Structure formats: C-alpha cells, structure tokens
C-alpha cells in the first residue's frame, strides 16, 4: 500500500489535472466560470474551485458539470489519467 503522503500527492495532482481538463472544455465552449456555474444551477464559485483543483466533486456534481460542459463524465475523467505508481 502506498504511503499516505504519496496518496495525498497523487490526489492533488489528479484534482489539478481534472480542473485543467474542465477549464479547457469551458473555454472551448466560450463560457465564463459564472456562466458554467449557472448552467449547473449554482450561484457561487463552484467551477473556480474545480478548475483550481481545490474542490473534490461528488459523482452527482461530476454528472452536472459534464452536462453543463456538453460532454460525457468519462471524457472529463479520461483527460486526467496518470501513470500507475512505480
């Protein structure tokens, strides 16, 4: 089993990569973060936290985000693949 610090580091890298994938899709659609949040039914700064890698999504929010970005949840996740640990 990997050390706790290694898991935390890999999790942070995954969240950052996911955020970058979401940001790339949002900008490709020409949406602002505020517009994306509105599409998801939020008034806050939800997408900003996702894009910065500071917000950990539930599966429900992953689905809402993908729908708002006019894509499949799998497409958002596959852009975040990391090599297996050595």
Task: Explain this structure.
- The protein is mainly alpha-helical and 86 residues long.
- The chain has a domain at 21-78: Orthogonal Bundle (434 Repressor (Amino-terminal Domain)).
- Helices cover 65% and strands 0% of the residues.
- The protein contains five helices and no strands.
- The chain has helices at residues 4-28, 33-40, 46-52, 59-68, 73-78.
- Helix 2 packs across helix 4.
- The longest helix has 25 residues, at 4-28.
- It is elongated.
- The model has no long low-confidence stretch (mean pLDDT 88).
Write the layout of secondary structure elements.
Elements: H1 4-28, H2 33-40, H3 46-52, H4 59-68, H5 73-78
List the keywords.
Cro/C1-type_HTH, elongated, 434 Repressor (Amino-terminal Domain), mainly alpha, Helix-turn-helix domain-containing protein
CATH topology of the domain at 21-78: 434 Repressor (Amino-terminal Domain)
Largest sheet: none
The helix tally amounts to 5
Helix content: 55-70%
Our Rg estimate from Cα atoms comes to 13 Å
- Contiguous low-pLDDT stretches (5 residues minimum) are none
Q: How far is it from the N-terminal to the C-terminal residue, by CA?
A: 12 Å
What share of the residues does DSSP label as strand, in percent? under 5%
Number of strands: 0
3D shape? elongated
The CATH H-level homologous superfamily of the domain at 21-78: lambda repressor-like DNA-binding domains
Mean pLDDT equals 88
Overall CATH class of the domain at 21-78: Mainly Alpha
**SS-derived structural category:** mainly alpha
CATH architecture of the domain at 21-78: Orthogonal Bundle
Please provide the ordered H/E string of secondary-structure elements: HHHHH
